[in-house]
Structures are given as structure tokens and as C-alpha cells.
Amino acid sequence: METLIEIKQDSPGFDGFIGSWLFQDDLTLLVDVGPANTSGRLIESLSRLGIDKIDYVLLTHIHLDHAGALADVLARYPMARVICHEKGIPNLVDPSRLWSGSLKVLGEIAESYGKPKPVPLDRMISHTRAQVSGVTVIETPGHAQHHLSFSCRNRLLAGEAAGIFMMVGREEYLRPATPPRFFPEVFLESVDRLISLEDQPIFYAHFGQAESSHLMLKRFRAQVLSWKGWIKGEIASGEEDPERRCVEVLLSKDPDLAAFARMDGPTRERERNFIGNAVKGFLGFFSEIKS
Prior knowledge:
By secondary structure, the protein is of the alpha/beta class.
């Protein structure tokens, strides 16, 4: 049984965006834990669901909105162990660099998420040593070097390797999450790695689910390639403020972003900011290969 636990945020426009997936069968698995500032809301939701034991926390990556609450969750569930990319573990044990880097990239959004607390090393399991029955760990760098996806009992937990997918009313909304530094080939190799798995339901960190991983991943792959072409064309035009122009072009050309127009004002502001951050990843990539 799977349950999506929404973790309410105080920032306007962040409803229906951050959550944890809870999977219960012979094991109880929690996938990502949300920001530090809202750890109490996640723990309260788990208590309301009657969860008194968590076997494993599966971290798709260590960004603040996915792993910030980890120390508090582990304090509440002392039996739980965490499966995380080996490159991410040092930044959870000592989150000072993670925090300073997040402030630099996200600014006020990082402040709203909150500063993560250190996590005990003995609670962590490197993804290279993880052996949990029915759980396959897949390295999916691209959104982050330390990003993992998991296949669990014929369910694909894609984190942000497959983009952001949510429903706006009855309309689907899909977009890449490609922050700097961004390497398109690495990102697409991760998508191809997920496509190579058997078709299965796919679960997104932000924020929904879909029945066919193959269908969604192929659609997403095509979207990333379209973004790459559109952004390259805007750079070639040589006009000023390429980030703003690229965001406008994407919103006008990409049918998978059409639901943007149906979002409320604060949600559109959130998405415009994140689309801009994704564009920065592409712009950085094109700048590097040009130089």
C-alpha cells in the first residue's frame, strides 16, 4: 500500500508540492522526508496514520526539500536506517556545506525550508551496500550527482530524475528539474536507465504518480530535448536577458507546461522561479561547451 503524505509549507504557492511517499507491506519504507522547518508536520502525519515503526528511509537525494527533516525523523523512529547515495552521506553528517550552497542557489526558498541538523553516521547505509529485499537502487545523476531512484515491488520511485509531474485540476503538468551545474547527456542517460526497467507505476517526489513509467519517461525525454533546442535557439538570437526570454519561450511552446495558465498566482510564481532555475542549468551547459 502506498500513501502520499503532503507536507504543508508556509510559503505561498507551495501547496501540493512537497511530500513523502509511504510504502507499507512486509516493510515500512518512507521515501524522502521534506524540509527541516516542517519535520513536525511529517511526524504528526505519520502518527495519525498509526506508523510506529519505519524500517528504511529511502533518500532520492539530499536537497533541503527532500532530506532536511531527516535528523528529526530519525530521532522519532530510532529503528529506522537511511539508504542514501554514498556521495551524499558526508553532507548529511555535517550539513554546513549543504546549507551554505543551498542559500547561494535558492536564497529565500532555502530559508523557508530551514537549516538541516546533523544526522548520525551510524544510521546511514551507502547505496552501494544497501541490500533490502524487493528494493533495487538505481543511480540516476543529472538533477544532482548524488541522485538515486528506487524500484520497489514493481513501483518506480523516481525522485526528480523523471522531472516534476502534478495535476492542475484535471490537466497534467510536466517539467524538467535541471539546475546548474547541468549535463544533458548524463541526465538523459539516467532517464534511459529508468526506461530500461520493466514498465511499472511511477511515483514522483513532486508530486504525483502515473500508471506507466515507460510512457511518462519517453514523454519526459522528448521534453528535455525540446527544451535544449528551444534554449539553444534563444541563445543564438544574441538578445539580452536570455533566462527571461527562455522562460517565456518554454511557456509558449511546450504543451506539457500548458497547465501553468490554470495555476493560481502564487503557484505560478513558484513554477516560474523553478523553470528559471532549470533554464540556468541549460544556459550554464551551453556556456561551458562554447568556452
